Each structure stands twice: as structure tokens, then as C-alpha cells.
């Protein structure tokens, strides 16, 4: 089958969510606006996630997986997905399903005109500390990146694969995907999406990772932006 869209699903110790994840993704594939496949990136889980993932991929022909030797973090999982994607579009969703795969259709409606379309969680179902820390972190990122995005941490995105593959990724840079597409002179858009409380499992990020780590990453982004090479070829003989 000729697929157009690959959904990357990073997984780290989400055994309690895997069954529901399968059901939600299979249901979405039935109504997806474009032909879609799933790529699960197991980021070195130490629970039963891998055996459950393998069972899913054995059952469904349009599901594949990658297993890391050890935990490397979300940025590495996304980079692996970008590197392995062969479709025109690539997307991303968290395995905790606090966002719905069905909302990919809201983003795909704009994928022809924009190079990255990201969700915005307007009615977040997280606890107060998580919402406050994310709000502060987003303000800091906007100050540094000037990308105009209200919710860069929303785990629901659609990117043209050619742009995704050119993103220079290192730890923490998953928080800057819209800004990194802007550095390629790409066009970006944000679209309101649904948000749900976490039903099973636990968040992998505490206050330190959600607030202080992004601040350090902002300086890395600014350094990289200043050091990036830009050139235009005026003429060539081939």
C-alpha cells in the first residue's frame, strides 16, 4: 500500500496504556483523511510494553516498531522516527493518549499549505502545577524563538517529512519543532485540539524537566540559530 502519512508514537513504560493505544489508533486508521501507518518507537521500556507492542505489530500490517537498546529520551525517539519515515507526511502523538488520534484530521486539513501544523490544548486536563509550569515554559520559549506558538509542548503534530528530516535534533529540541521548521523558512500553523486527563501510567516529566530544562535548551536553540549555515546558489553548470 502507498502510504502518505506516518504517525510516530514514542513509548516509555506505558504498559497500562498500550491496549487502549491500539484501539484508538486502529479506530483512527478507519477514518484518516490520508493513507496512514503507525511507527511505535519503544524508548528502552523496562516494563511489559515491548511484548505488547510486538503483539500489536503482528496483528496489524500497518503497524511497525523500533526498540532502543536503552532509554534515550523523547528527542531521540522522534529523530529515529523522522529518519525512518518514508511517507510524505510524518506525525507525532504521545502514548498516554491525552490527545486523540482523531484530531490528526484537524491538522491534516492544513498540511498542503503549511510545513508544520501543531495542536493547541485550549482546555487542558492536567493538574495545576503541570499547567502552570508548561505555561511559563511556553512563554520563555516564545521569548527566545519568536515563533508565535502558544503550546509547543502539545504532543500532536503533522510535519512535511522533508522538513522533519532536516531538523537538527539533540536532547530537548523536541520542544522547539515549530521554531526549527521556521529556521528552514517553512510555514507553521497551530490548530485547537482536544485534551484529556491521563487515565493510566504516570508522567515521565517532573517540574525540573518541564521548566528548568527547557530554559537551558532555549540558550542551545539561540546558539544554533546564530551558527546555522545559510546559502543560495546563484548559478551552476549541472
State the total count of DSSP E strands.
7
CATH topology: Spore Coat Polysaccharide Biosynthesis Protein SpsA, Chain A
Q: In percent, how helical is the residue content?
A: 25-40%
Distance between the termini: 35 Å
Q: Sheet with the most strands?
A: 7 strands, mixed
* Principal-axis shape: globular
**CATH architecture designation:** Alpha-Beta Complex
Cα radius of gyration in angstroms: 18 Å
Order of helices and strands: EHEHEHEHEHEHHEH
Strand content: 15-25%
Estimate the mean pLDDT confidence.
85
> Which class do the helix and strand fractions yield?
alpha/beta
Number of domains: 1
CATH superfamily: Spore Coat Polysaccharide Biosynthesis Protein SpsA, Chain A
CATH class: Alpha Beta
Quaternary structure state of the chains depicted: single chain
Strand order of the largest sheet: 3-2-1-4-6-5-7
- Low-pLDDT runs of 5+ residues are none
Features:
238 residues; alpha/beta; Spore Coat Polysaccharide Biosynthesis Protein SpsA, Chain A; seven-stranded mixed beta sheet; 8 helices
What do these coordinates show?
The chain is an alpha/beta fold and 238 residues long. It has one domain (5-127, 147-202): Spore Coat Polysaccharide Biosynthesis Protein SpsA, Chain A, CATH 3.90.550.10. 38% of the residues lie in helices and 17% in strands. A seven-stranded mixed sheet has the order 3-2-1-4-6-5-7, with helices on both faces.
Provide a brief overview of the structure:
The chain is α/β, with parallel strands linked by helices and 238 residues long.
